[in-house]
Design a protein that fits this description.
The protein has 359 residues and is α/β, with parallel strands linked by helices. It is 36% helix and 18% strand. The protein has eleven helices and 14 strands. α7 crosses α10.
Length: 359
């Protein structure tokens, strides 16, 4: 079988779409399927055919700092502008004509759905519950996308979820407690976005991944260093622009190494959806540095509501707030106990191998 994956990757080798795509590509190639990815070469995918994608250009003055809806977030990223959708659809159409896929799997790439419909190719979409929240947004947000849909003689849409409803299957990673969907939304639920790893022994290791926090590199460096330097545990920290260096017990990394997540005592992250669910599937308590974007804030609220993590708003991030919030996470056993209980729920929902039966 030939499978084309079309992710929206806004931070090369860092965001949730990148990690899910890498997991999908590894799964399909190991099972003997031909796999291709439409994405920037900056992501360095291996063992797959790589095809170009449209180039994102954020609208002037657009910001993701206060976007409550999925539509506003996509608009602020430049991912539903007329120019981008047209260019990206044409890029994916060219990939379809060359690769001849039997199936397209799209992650936030509207053009993947549009191109699949034009060429009559089966299409799956990866979705999350935050997309389905009833947040209002200005109608102008959808204007560019609808102009592009008219260009390709497709029906106009008022919400992005309506586009995904036209896909053959919608896939979500997580459990009902963290990703609730109604029966009408007809979502295929899978526990993990990877293959279930062997249970790791709990170590004295803290992982810090802060790709989407908007503070300066210097501010993040000083906050992490001053909060954890000399602590009786190893800290592995990464943020955008981070340089590799070691200071006593802290290893600053130039790229995130999520293979170190299993067995960690805790993870501090910015609401990254992949890390969020992976940590839950491994029973690891979380501290989320949240902003106001639709998915980061949703994951942070879920952590508080379900009692498996603590939250700190990024505008309040400092050495003292980082340390005190982390201390709260580690001093109360309920966070670890809840994370361990939720891990058993994730195990029951299966791992990425579950997708193979739907091909």
């Amino acid at each position: 079988m030939k499978i084309l994956i079309t992710p929206l990757i806004t931070s090369p080798k860092a965001d949730a779409s990148y990690y899910v795509t890498r997991s999908l590509a590894d799964l399909f190639t190991q099972e003997g399927h031909a796999c291709a990815v439409s994405a920037s070469a900056d992501n360095q995918f291996h063992n797959v055919s790589l095809y170009p994608c449209g180039l994102l250009k954020r609208p002037l003055f657009a910001s993701t700092s206060k976007v409550r809806s999925y539509e506003e977030w996509m608009h602020a990223k430049g991912a539903i502008s007329k120019e981008y959708i047209i260019d990206d659809t044409e890029a994916i159409l060219e990939a379809i004509d060359q690769f001849r896929p039997d199936l397209i799997i799209t992650l936030d790439r509207i053009a993947g759905v549009v191109a699949a419909r034009i060429r009559n190719v089966r299409c799956w979409a990866v979705v999350n519950n935050a997309m389905y929240r009833n947040n209002s947004f200005p109608s102008s947000v959808m204007q560019g996308l609808n102009q592009a849909l008219s260009y390709f003689r497709q029906e106009q849409e008022f919400q992005l979820r309506s586009i995904y409803a036209r896909c053959e299957r919608r896939i979500s990673f997580g459990i009902t407690l963290t990703q609730p969907f109604t029966a009408e939304q007809n979502v295929t639920r899978i526990g993990m976005a990877t293959i279930q790893p062997a249970k790791a022994v709990r170590t004295n290791r803290l992982i810090v991944c802060l790709n989407d926090v908007r503070l300066t590199n210097r501010t993040l460096y000083r906050a992490v260093r001053d909060a954890f330097l000399g602590a009786p545990y190893a800290v592995y920290a990464w943020y955008k622009g981070c340089k590799s260096m070691k200071e006593k017990n802290i290893q600053f990394m130039s790229s995130a190494k999520l293979d170190m997540l299993p067995g960690s005592i805790a993870v501090i992250h910015d609401g990254n959806d992949f890390i969020f669910h992976q940590a839950l599937a491994m029973g690891i308590p979380q501290m989320i540095i949240t902003g106001h974007e639709y998915l980061r804030s949703y994951n942070a609220q879920t952590a508080v509501r379900q009692n498996f993590g603590v939250v700190l708003n990024e505008e309040n991030l400092s050495m003292s707030s980082l340390y005190e919030t982390y201390r709260k996470l580690m001093s109360d056993d309920r966070y670890y106990d809840t994370a361990q209980w939720l891990m058993t729920k994730y195990e029951k929902e299966g791992d990425l191998n579950t997708l193979l039966k739907y091909l």
